[in-house]
Amino acid sequence: MKKKKVEFSSHTGNLALMRKIVRGFLDAYPFSEKERTLMVLGVDEACTNIIRHAYHLRDDQLISLSLEGLRGCVRMRLRDYGKQTCATTMRGREHHLIKPGGLGLHLIRTAFDKVDYVLKPRGTELVMTKNLEERKAA
Hints:
This protein has helices at about 15-25, 35-55, 105-110, and strands spanning about 1-10, 60-70, 75-80, 115-120, 125-130. By secondary structure, it is of the alpha+beta class. Helix 1 runs antiparallel to helix 2 and helix 2 runs antiparallel to helix 3.
């Protein structure tokens, strides 16, 4: 099992380094380039949502990202300590509508096989899982 954990402040300037870390971690697994790119973008979108909605654009708050390579999947846990949003109220807009915003949740759910929001006593943990099984040769 391969594990990596990184903590960073909620400053948007940290997102490029976070994307690089996620991509480097995923390079060790047999995902297609499209799958890797979607997962990197999904984690980036989740971080952006934390900054915007949990931390209300404050750039000095903690975000923790744990990356785990398990036997049958890769799991990413994104933890914040900000304002909680009830998972049942998080709905993206219909993706065929042309207007800004609301596609992030669709992107995250497309990139990963399983997405869970775990409400903590303080903040939220987003658990994103991508299965390794049924990999096709390119």
